Amino acid sequence: MTSTANAPKTLQELKDLLLNDIKVKVAGIDVDGVLRGKFMSKDKFLSAASSDGFGFCSVIFGWDIHDSVYPKELLVSNRANGYRDILASIDLSTYRRIPWENNVPFFLVSFLDPETKEPLVVDPRGILRITSDRAADFHRACYAGVEYEYFNFKETPLSLADKKFQNLTPLTPGMHGYSLLRTQLNNDYFHAIFDEASRFGIDIEGHHTETGPGVLETALAYTDAVRMADNAILFKFLTKSVGMKHGVIPTFMAKPWGNLPGCSGHTHVSLRDESGRNVFALSELELSTGRAGAANDDVKFLSQEAEYFLAGILDGIADVMPMLVPTINGYKRLVGGEAFWAPNSITYGYDSRAASIRIISPPSVPPAATRLEIRVPGADMNPYFAISAIFLLGLRGIEKKLKLSTPPISKLTADDKKNGTVKKLPTSLEAATERMMRPDSIAREKGMFGDVFVEHYGGTREHEVSVWNEAVTNWEVERYIELA
Predict the structure, then answer these.
(1) Residues 6+ apart with CB under 8 A from 317
(2) Environment class of 185 (CB within 10 Å of its CB; exposed 0-12, middle 13-18, buried 19+)
(3) Which residue numbers delimit the GS catalytic domain (predicted)?
(4) What is the spatial distance between Cα 299 and Cα 297, in angstroms, rounded to a whole number?
(5) Are residues 274 and 385 in the same domain?
(6) Which residues are bridge partners to 349 per DSSP?
(7) In a domain, 482, yes or no
(8) Which tens digit of pLDDT belongs to each residue from 195-244?
(9) How high is the pLDDT of residue 25?
(10) CB of 371 closer than 8 Å to CB of 280
């Protein structure tokens, strides 16, 4: 994994870095992608860093996004063992300082089984490390990039509560994608996100307005998969922290407005060999005409390995949808389908933003930039799970030498979309969870997520569905209270 700048490699280097500090901030990630952390005294931190780690209450894998304990006994954290401690292992390579918190030192942790010292399969960082190790078995390294779209409101946590989360004021009015004028409004906030990200060790490739009132989009720089997921999670933390200082609430909800496009978490992926070469790219000799034997023209500038990888994603994406779209709200983003560039079918195409998987290859980019963009996830995804799911499916496709079973989206007809040639993705979290948890789900296979993960994570999604099913919404009251 690529370390952040100046990350310590030895205990002595760590002590030298923290020489003038009295406290350290640490955090891990729960299944919903929420940072869970604490401040530690420097002495306690150094003691933990010099050993296997420190104890952290396992309830973070036993409660939901609002700290309600799951009623279903899950495999990692449950009442039967009294929510015993798990081991939080400090990852020194994630060292950085938080510039908006007086430069306090910050480290991420991974969670381990306290007895075996093995990564917890339900720990987001743990499962992505397991995924990276699986790629290493193929002599491959996983690389990724994430683009976030997010609405911004002129609100505070208190005003959100006072307004009961209704009639919120957008940061700017109107639909102004790629606007140079709208960035002049709230200019300090807009620039602070970019500048503080740089200081926080998160490289940004692009930062601009997107279509919608108060919408921004930020593309995070391409890097190895674990570092990318870390950066994606920490970018949300950064943006929300910077927003607080400017009286702004950014939201990474997938669909905060019913009549507007949602917020994507588009994820770009490729594999590299041990020399660092992008194995999705063609050789120079093949670039003039494309690869002989390609399934169709849309993939002729992808390597055979990349075509297998693509086929693997298409073959199994419906079985891992809760890893890509984990919330009730996320499926509402997909309802609009191609109209909102939020595909809800299992499709692919060269440079097509209408497809679920966009092929980015020559001639539109140099060979070294060849990659796949998975357009299904929303901004509310847990990037560790989403990236893991994409790579595990792709590696499965390579291992099985899977072939593309459908033509690209540009060749599909209206009849193809009606007669079942084109398969739809699950349209709700409930349907997606049921599919993932069925006995023959690809998610359960060896080399994929396995039964332990599926049962635990599936249980958390069943809880989310149950909470939703019990809720009475404003829409229901307005529709039925008088006339039903």
Answers:
(1) 324, 346, 356, 376, 393, 425
(2) middle
(3) 124-484
(4) 5
(5) yes
(6) 358
(7) no
(8) 999 999 999 999 999 999 999 999 999 999 999 999 999 999 999 999 99
(9) 98
(10) yes
Q: How many CA atoms lie within 13 A of 42 on its CB side?
A: 13
- Per-residue buried b or exposed e for 102-121, using 16+ beta carbons within 10 Å of the residue's own CB: eeebbbbbbbbebeeeebbb
Structure token pair of residue 287? 């670039």
Mean pLDDT along residues 397-405: 97
Residue 113 corresponds to which tokens in the numbers above? 């089984």
| Site of tokens 């010292």 | 117
Domain of residue 34, CATH code: 3.10.20.70
pLDDT at 36 over 80: yes
Q: What is the 3-state secondary structure (H, E, C) of 21-62?
A: CCEEEEEEECCCCCEEEEEEEHHHHHHHHCCCCEEEEHHHHC
Cα(387)–Cα(377) distance, integer angstroms = 10
Instruction: Say what the pTM is.
Output: 0.95
Which residues, other chains included, contact 61 with Cβ-Cβ below 8 Å and sequence gap of 6+? 30, 31, 74, 76, 77, 86, 111, 120, 122, 123, 456
Q: Give the pLDDT confidence score for residue 420 in this predicted structure.
A: 82
Q: Does residue 132 form part of some domain?
A: no
Q: Is the pLDDT of residue 4 over 80?
A: no
Q: Domain containing 256: what range?
A: 141-475
